[in-house]
Amino acid sequence: MRLCALAVKTPKNILVIRFSAMGDVVLTVPVIQNLLKKYPETQISLLTNSFFHPFFDGIPNLTLYPVDLKGKHKGFLGLSKLVKELTSNQQFDVIIDLHSVIRTWVIGGLLRLKGTPVFRIEKGRSEKKAFVQRKIRAVLSHSTERYQAVFMKAGFDFSLDKIFLNTSNKFDTQKYINSKVINIGIAPFAAHQSKQWGLDKINEFIQQINQKHEVQFYLFGGGKSEVTQLNDLANNYDNATNMAGSFKLTQELELLKNLDVLIAMDSGNMHIATLLGIPVVSIWGGTHPDIGFNALYQPKENSIQITTDELPCRPCSVFGTNDCKLKETPFACMTKIEPERVISQLVSLDIFGEKKLDN
């Protein structure tokens, strides 16, 4: 499908589409917030999974529409029903497709039949593929910049200033987070093995810190398997608590916000934490932060990785989906990262400095 050549001069009512994944959805937040700061008269309707709605709390002029792709909005007929629901009492000036998959093409196509211009994200697949193939080494556009570019094509002109998630502050985190000690969060999981440091390394990391510092660890994840594994890990330590599976998303956001630092993989938790304004030390294996997925607002040194000089096969994948081809040392991109290196970065961030007694 081709993009419409022109949008209305000053769109007032916008439909934005981004279904998944969690990290990709949360990265729309600073883009939408910056646009509305520049264009406060604009109304935005966001079509996304209802689970992600807490990310957008407190944003003015934003209406959230839940999509049920496995139920009433499944298939072409379901998407047609969705379009009727969206347009039953309003007319959109422009459609901003930040996902650009078959489902969003269908929605955009049906709305374009009604005369609404559609603008879709340019994902930069060829650039990212060239980066993985080591044909280029330039830092690629961040996902937020690619989102911004879609709005720019639709006639909006705004900068991407540093903006964080709004949280409700209604959850009493003091029951779970002791502000008098150093609080380190760990989110050890990611969608693919090449993006996971591994629980053995996490164990070593915790043990080495416990030898020198008084710390409380908080473990984050999701799903039955991850909850079970994190329970087993937490049971090894008096100062480790598994937070997975016990809290609503709104509550997890409050808990994360009150940590001193989060250790994360290339994952949604990494993006969420950095948008909550806390330091995030991320660990990278099969993927690479320069492809456009690095943690916003974090110094480059917070991205821990084996260089391509040390391991020429890095990165092996844009999204971490490729199998490791190293037979003798599989996933060396992760196993070669030692806990001492991560701890050294925490020291450089002064994470182990004295806690304020007036907290």
Describe this structure in words.
The strands form 2 sheets. This protein has a 6-stranded parallel β-sheet with strand order 8-7-6-9-10-11. Strands 3-2-1-4-5 form a 5-stranded parallel β-sheet, with helices on both faces. It is of the alpha/beta class. Helix content is about 30%, strand content about 15%. Helix 3 (about 75-85) packs across helix 4 (about 100-110) and helix 7 packs across helix 12. It has helices at about 20-25, 30-40, 75-85, 100-110, 125-130, 145-155, 200-210, 225-235, 250-255, 270-275, 330-335, 340-350, and strands spanning about 15, 45-50, 60-65, 95, 120, 180-185, 215-220, 240, 260-265, 280-285, 305. Helix 10 (about 270-275) links the parallel strand 9 (about 260-265) and strand 10 (about 280-285). The longest helix is centred in the first third of the chain and has 12 residues, at about 75-85.
Lateral strand order in the biggest sheet? 8-7-6-9-10-11
The name of the CATH architecture of the largest domain is 3-Layer(aba) Sandwich
State which percent range the strand residues make up: 5-15%
CATH topology of the largest domain: Rossmann fold
The total beta strand count reads 11
Based on helices, strands and strand pairing, what is the structural class?
Answer: alpha/beta
- Largest β sheet strand count, sense and barrel closure: 6 strands, parallel
Count of the domains = 2
Low-confidence stretches: 1-8
- Radius of gyration using CA atoms only: 22 Å
Distance between the termini: 56 Å
Averaging pLDDT over every residue, what do you get? Answer: 93
**What best-fitting shape do the alpha-carbon axes yield?**
globular
**CATH superfamily heading of the largest domain:** Glycogen Phosphorylase B
Percent helix, as a range, is: 25-40%
Order of helices and strands: EHHEEHEHEHHEHEHEHEHEEHH
- CATH class identity of the largest domain: Alpha Beta
